[in-house]
Amino acid sequence: MQSLASKLVPKAVEKLIPYQSARRIGGQGHLWLNANELEQPINYGDLSEKDNNHYNRYPDFLPHDTAEAYIEYCEQNSGKLNCEAVTVRGADEAIDLLIRTFCHPGKDQIIICPPTYGMYEFCADSFSVNTCKIPLLADFQLDVDQIKEQLPNSPLLFLCSPNNPTGNSIHEADIITLLEASKDSTLVVVDEAYIEFSSQQSALHLMHKYPHLIVIRTLSKAFGLAAIRCGFLLADSSVMTYINRLIAPYPIADPTAEIALKALSSNGLEVMHKQTNQLIQIREWFKAQLMLLDSVQHVFGSETNFVLIRFKDHLDTYQHLITQGIVTRNQAHEEILKDCVRITIGSKESMLETLNALKTLK
Ligand SMILES: Cc1ncc(COP(=O)(O)O)c(C=O)c1O
After folding, report:
1. Residue-wise pLDDT tens digits, 22-70
2. 130, 162 Cβ separation under 8 angstroms
3. Is the link from the previous residue into 41 a cis peptide, with omega within 30 of 0?
4. Which terminus of the chain is more solvent-facing, meaning fewer CB atoms within 10 Å of its CB: N or C?
5. Mean of per-residue pLDDT scores for the chain
6. Cα 196 to Cα 73, 220, 224, distances in angstroms
7. Which atom of ligand 1 is nearest to the CA of 117?
8. Are 252 and 127 in contact (CB under 8 A)?
9. Is 231 in the pocket of ligand 1 (CB under 6 A)?
10. Is the CB of 268 under 6 A from ligand 1?
11. Running DSSP on this structure, what letter comes out for residue 129?
């Protein structure tokens, strides 16, 4: 049976032969004179001997060990998976790749549910793809019926769970309803950048039944590795066939792959889980403290490493925090988030300083 991915993929992508980089072509030998690299590494002084001794060579064209380590990590929570993973330069690259792989510029539209992460629309715009916006309902859940109406015209639906900037998880029942309704029309992408902070299970286990589900992940949040730019796209092989045609020849720098592997080792995962639990405790304590403040109108529930707060006078609050050297994110440009500010959870000391600054607000 023809997969949905192969039905949707534009002819130009279907015909693409992946760029034949030297690493992809490979070969056997003892002199590697095929990639115009410097044969001997240069020692720049600060790098250790071990680090330095291979940076003259291009990295693996698709670093399988990081992808395999990531799947193993996912399987600890989601059980045996039958999907594939690719390592990308942050979840942002996954978003961009999906739009460039499955949308016809100037013709197709993606569906998003604002307020949500800004890169879906930005990437669509940058590739001349339209964005159909079906706003979240007042409780920040999906307007499932409205989304269903748009499915036949849209190769991609982006859901963000837990959602940035609202902080809540999308009901799994709604995701399943949409997966059922989209089987013949739309690849459903669930961006799980904040999943480690959530009490809801990942959508990954649904991939057995719904091969048109795609999950995006990152090491930038709970793993604390935003600087190395490392994310993962997990999907059925029918989807991955086309992603692999478009992906950059050397998507991941060697130092990134090395650090990612350390983070995904059993020691690395233990540290990450411990830190995540601590952060969740600080988040819940901070929320409770915020609710005691006069300036606060509402603190929204959070399944992430930030909280969304409605202040009585958000501009005053936001500016006041800036004058105290505390930089937060003003969300008031979205109608549904009028008077809202998003605050990332840091250490207990940082949150205490923030609370004290809020208390001095006149
Ligand atoms: C929902 C969501 N997805 C993706 C990203 C980007 O992640 P990365 O740093 O892996 O590109 C972010 C970053 O804030 C985000 O909030």
Report:
1. 878 888 889 988 889 999 988 887 666 666 678 899 988 777 899 999 9
2. no
3. no
4. N
5. 94
6. 11, 11, 12
7. 1
8. no
9. yes
10. no
11. -
